[in-house]
Amino acid sequence: MTVPCVRVPRERGEAARKRIAELDALSGTYEIEVVDGDIYIPLDESADLDALVSEFDVVDRDVDRRETQTLPADILGFEPSYERLGDIAIIDEDDDERARGIAEAIADSDLPLDTVVNRASPIEGELRIRNWDLLVGDSTETVHREYGCEFEVDIAEMYFSPRLATERRRVVKQVEDGEQFFDMFAGVGPFVIPAAKQGAECVGTDLNEAAIEYLRRNAERNNVAERVTAIHGDVREISGYDDWADRLVMNLPHSADEFLETAVELAGDDCVLHYYDIQHESDPFGPGERAIREAAAPDYEVTVQTKHEVRSYAPHELNVCLDVRFRR
Fold first, then answer.
1. CB–CB of 154/132 below 8 Å?
2. I want to staple 252 with a disulfide (CB 3.0 to 4.6 A). Which of 13, 173, 185, 269 is the partner?
């Protein structure tokens, strides 16, 4: 399988391996290879490639899986579907017996996963919380690593999706040092923390009090607390930030349109809005763009910079993002 690897001369291999391990970027799944005097060190899927590129030669290479590693498929005889969040494996099985079989295979494998949960409900309520069946382990709390950041999260208390890591990275790479960044539905900080690491002054708000507490902890954990303000409450009722934001994130795709009036109030004279929406595939961007233009008129000139499909959400429904520039 093709994976990103650090390539170094053989004599530097051990020093590089230790350094990569210190950065928590060393893959435990694939074999280190030696070819023509160079060593190829496979990187973990959560590794911060941008940081590593500044220090090492990073290349894509076909490498072998470690033969000594027992995977769930080796135990089950089929490849189970699961999602990883820190040391938690998340499965989505309707059949309880099948779910327990998969959970036991994951626990008995060599994967570094201590907890297995099965989705027991859809995301519900204004706090966007899901119920879980805890099949292996005793805690729904974990530490998730993503592009050089660490996030403490408790999936029983707050919403968090590791599937959006690439999308979050796309947005954060646009953030400039010193800009004023406002996340209207911040959760534990997956947009806020990396934006603060980019040098932005960040504000994150959320209705979920537990999520805001974790956001504060994550700011401390990632050494950006001095650039992060975490506020518990409905963003529509929070004062003191009118005309403040250089960049706004609205990742509440089922109902973000209900908050556009507030977004316009928060926006500064020149502001970029990242607006997330879920719409039918026949017109995934139209409803959001029309709502944004209506809310911004007549105060702002609106330019749609990017129309971006994030992922398929459901049959014939797409999760999309509009990157929009407001100029007063």
1. no
2. 185
Query: Which two three-digit tokens encode residue 240?
Result: 């003191």
Q: How far apart are CA 16 and CA 14, in angstroms?
A: 5
Contact of 188 with 129, CB cutoff 8 Å: no
Per-residue pLDDT tens over the stretch 7-18: 999 888 888 988
- Quote the CA–CA distance of 183 and 212 in Å, as a whole number: 12
Residues 6+ apart with CB under 8 A from 50: 147, 148
Dmax (CA) of the chain: 65
CB 236 within 8 A of CB 269: no
Q: For the segment 275-296, what is each residue's pLDDT rounded down to a tens digit? A: 999 999 999 999 999 999 999 9
Please tell me the predicted confidence (pLDDT) of residue 129.
86
Q: How many CB atoms lie within 10 A of CB 213?
A: 16
Angle (CA) 133-139-141 rounded to 5° is 105
Structure tokens at 292: 């944004």
Task: Say if residue 142 is exposed, middle or buried (CB neighbours under 10 Å; 0-12, 13-18, 19+).
Answer: buried
- Summarised one tens digit per residue, pLDDT across range 222-244 is 999 999 999 999 999 999 999 99
Rounded Cα distance between 49 and 4, Å, is: 8
DSSP letter at 64 equals P
219 CB-near residues (< 8 Å, 6+ apart): 189, 192, 193, 196, 225, 227, 228, 230
What kind and span of H or E run contains 294? helix 286-296
Output the pLDDT for position 68: 67
Non-local (6+) Cβ contacts of 72 within 8 A are: 79, 80, 82, 102, 105, 106, 109, 111
Q: Roughly how many angstroms between the first and final C-alpha of the chain, as a whole number?
A: 50
User: Do residues 126 and 207 make contact, with C-beta atoms less than 8 angstroms apart?
Assistant: yes
